[in-house]
Amino acid sequence: MKLVTYNVNGIKARLPRLLEYLAEQKPDIVCLQELKSSDETFPEADIRGAGYGAVWHGQKGFNGVAVLAKGMDPVERQRGLAGDPEDAHSRYLEVDVDGLTVASIYLPNGNPQPGPKFDYKLKWIDRLRDRARALLAEERPAVLAGDYNVIPNDDDTYSVSAMQDDALMQPESRAGYRALVAEGWTDALRTRHPGGGVWTFWDYQAGAWQRDAGFRIDHLLLSPQAADRLSDAGVDKEYRGREKASDHAPTWVRLR
Question: 147 an active-site residue?
């Protein structure tokens, strides 16, 4: 089973690239982030035409998450995270697919920091940890997949100095991510590539793609029951170089 997380940076703008990816790679499950689409304008017909069922949690103009499943409809379990009744952002969607629990996650960016956006990011991580703890208690195969907007380690970025003031790499951001993982989750990409140097995102600015000036912010965390089935993990990097591509590359895990 190939499970992919893919921040599409606008599903309407990237629909040709997404359909191309589905046709060429034929992943079993795809978690999408940053749809930038309302529920009503999500391109369900195109997705179904490609052979995938879908559940989505949209928001007009920004945010938005979805889960696609090849040849079947995911069964929704939860949308949004508990702990902040004022939070109207579409950033979390949890489903069941073929015996696996999967969450598509779009964690807040947090810039500029310090400030209210950074505070929101840290509180959101705490709320995610609460939900992740409940999932671990179920003792079932689960994957928390998405754009976490956290660079966990120095070797997860092309330049520590360039990113040192960014919310993605602040000690508090890293501490929240590491605390989440430490409660029993396996970082699939890190496990398969312990030496770092694997990027999932390249900015549109300053020739970042051409210079390979990227960093790793898209993560797939596996519960112990899913980690037992881990066979490989990687990044379909070449899709970042295609015409009108997202600034993220599809990032994946294979489970036996």
Answer: yes
Catalytic residue, chosen from 6, 21, 92, 106, is: 106
Which tens digit of pLDDT belongs to each residue from 85-120?
A: 999 999 999 999 999 999 999 999 999 999 999 999
| Beta-strand pair 65-70/75-79 | unpaired
**Annotated binding-site ranges for Mg(2+):** 7, 34, 147, 149, 247-248
Which of 57, 89, 219, 248 is labelled catalytic?
248
Question: From the annotation, which residues make up the binding site?
Answer: 7, 34, 147, 149, 247-248
* Containing structural domain, residue 148: 2-255
Query: Is the pTM higher than 0.70?
Result: yes
189-226 pLDDT, tens digit each = 999 999 999 999 999 999 999 999 999 999 999 999 99
Catalytic residue among 28, 147, 166, 236: 147
Alpha helices in the chain (DSSP H): 11-25, 44-49, 116-137, 160-163, 171-182, 188-192, 208-211, 224-227
Per the annotation, the verdict on 106 as an active-site residue is yes
CATH number at residue 117: 3.60.10.10
Q: How many domains does the chain have?
A: 1
Nearest Cα residue to 7 out of 75, 48, 65, 79: 65
